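User: Predict the structure for this protein chain, please.
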Amino acid sequence: MAKKKTHLYVFCYFVFCITTKTLLAQTAFNWLAYGDLRGYFEPCGCDPKSDLGGVARIATLVQRERSTNKNLLVFDLGNNYNTIKKNQIKRKYIQKAFDEIKPTVSLVNRAEISYGPESLGERTYVLSNLIRSNNKKYAKVLDFYEDEKYLVLGFYWQQDHFSQVLSWDTGLKQKWSEWFKKNSKKQKILLYSGPSSTLGEIIKTFSFDLIIKSNEKPPGTPVSFDEQDNPSLLSKFVSGQSIKMVPWGGLGVLRGGQLSEGLSIKEIMSQNISSDTFIQKTPALSFQEDIERSITWLVPSYSTGTPLKSLIKEYEKESSQEFEITTKERALNIEDSLFVGAQACQGCHPQAFEIWSKSKHAHAYETLQKKNRETNLDCISCHVVGWDQKGGFASIKTSPHLANIQCENCHGPRKEHIINPSLKLGNISLEECKKCHNAVHSPTFNKKTFWAKIFHGKETG
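Assistant: Here is the predicted structure, written as structure tokens:
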């Protein structure tokens, strides 16, 4: 009797799956969403924990997903350039990269407004609250994107861009209502960037099948990996609706559509699971499980087979050329430099020099060479002496004595100390360490354990 009852449950579950999949085929759609790179072009690779993200890995994931799903929707939430520390080469290649990826539609977000229309690539853009009279150069930007199945709207609002975008309470409802009416049978999707309070007002007025939100971290927020440790930070309830945000920095990609459905019929039959056990083992996804399964973190394996290989080489070549220009300018200051290099300290501080020479600091430049990053302007400062100061390292040809992390990275230029040894060393602040041992380059940094590896005399900081 119990076995017949189990088989009845299995049969009902089978019918339910077939019916559900038929309905999903009619209403569900598979999608990927990324954005908010904010200038984060590629990971530095200094630490496995922080080796995430980058345009090349986004391209790999999109390519793989498209190979098995020709109808995949790909959404770019924009805000992909750094608006605080502008880097035109990075902006140029992020723009090129996403043109090659060809997302279904891209949102015009804070960075794209800040940089202006020249920051827009050749792909499809949407912004449904753009003030057209003030933005004739944004003519290529659509009010909405549509095809035979979908209507996609984009909304961006920040007070400092009030002259370029309309706030929600300035007549948008009527215009949007007309678009909804004309596309009543289509799936409605909103790409959103702005305050949650405004999003709440939109949700009360219009019903969307999908809302994807830009990351909420404010401009200038340093790279961190808290979202990977706690994915629930990327999901919030607004007016009773669960809204997902794209991961900061492009470290991961949101995904949606049909998720796996727990135990299969074969698993149930082979394990002879009772009806009670079956019900217990196939619960609905919890809030935490839902968001965790909605994110693909871009780990190093996504670097393999990237379709942007040629573009990355082009970027590295142009970056190297910029580096060469910079080093020629810096070389002019080497002769009068106040930096002397660790060899000049060895005579009076032999014990400290010996400890330093056996540390990783003494081989910091080599790590760049092994990864072919010695001409990378983003990396060089944490592998040489005085890159951020006049008279610091210029190039391995003109200032080899200033390669690697040395005494003067912590103690400052010591030429005057050599001339007059009575000039004592100042206190060493932990903040000096954190300039390089930050969340990106050294996420596991701990002063106590790290200092023990290079301890050489009385600690003064």
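DSSP finds 18 helices and twelve strands in the chain.
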